[in-house]
Amino acid sequence: MANPCALPTLASPPSEEDLASLKKLEKRILHRAGEAIRTYGLIADGDRILVGLSGGKDSWALLDVLCSLQKRAPVEFQVHGITVDPGFPKFDPDRIAEVCEQRGIPHHVLGAPIDALIRQRPDETPCIICSRLRRGVLYSYAKQHGFTKIALGHHLDDLLETLLLNLFFGGKLATMPVRLTSDDGANTVIRPLATCEEEDLRRFTWLKGYPIVPCGCPLCACSVSESRRKQAKALIEQLKESIPQIKASMLKAMSNVKSSHLLDLQLGALTACGVDESVERLG
Ligand code: SF4
After folding, report:
1. What is the whole-number distance in angstroms between the Cα of residue 6 and the centre of ligand 1?
2. Residue whose CA is at the smallest distance from ligand 1 atom 1
3. Least crowded by CB within 10 Å, which of 78, 151, 235, 242?
């Protein structure tokens, strides 16, 4: 699912001068998304793609990008928007449906009793319940209605923050996969915006006039996972002041892994025997 806790967009409407920058920005985003789609084989001829549409900036940007690419791609594919309604009283899925209708994009709303379940199970971590249920309803709907891919709006900043969170709190070197097939092989999740910067997407959505629909979750500002994510984001932003190319370098690092220079025996580049020998040599 696209991050339902995405940051709010810019507040005031864009000026003429702001709008003049849209073409160049759109070109950059389409170029990056197109390159990710080609590099990682995210879309194939005949695909029916379900776009997770939370009403946040990233999900609108993804829907817009896929609709644009649909017109110019050498392959044919369908794009539908899907919104999971978590039942939070302040969430307004009708606003999302209205925009999709105006723009001629097929759209579906699925109810998931997330609000009710979080209240019923105070001992469980709410964000885990939330993501499990969202994933569950999306996967079932896609499977039942013959959708071949589920596209989510996670972007480069999400991937970099996840990399740090896994490193600092999870004890593993991993980020969000750009393409992932579910264990039963029935669903494939893709993240076509994986190399696009959040700031570009925020500005793009604002310039294009998409409404940002708040998810209405009372926990958004205070959940542990969100506050850790904010910490990781702040760290990257702080480092960017002295290392301007930090995001580009981290992106490059994720596709330039030297497995022999890590310590995981399952990577195959090292064997337990090989490690022992090198330790002996050092001794
Ligand atoms: S903060 Fe709320 S909307 Fe966000 S993942 Fe957690 S429960 Fe879901």
Report:
1. 10
2. 220
3. 242
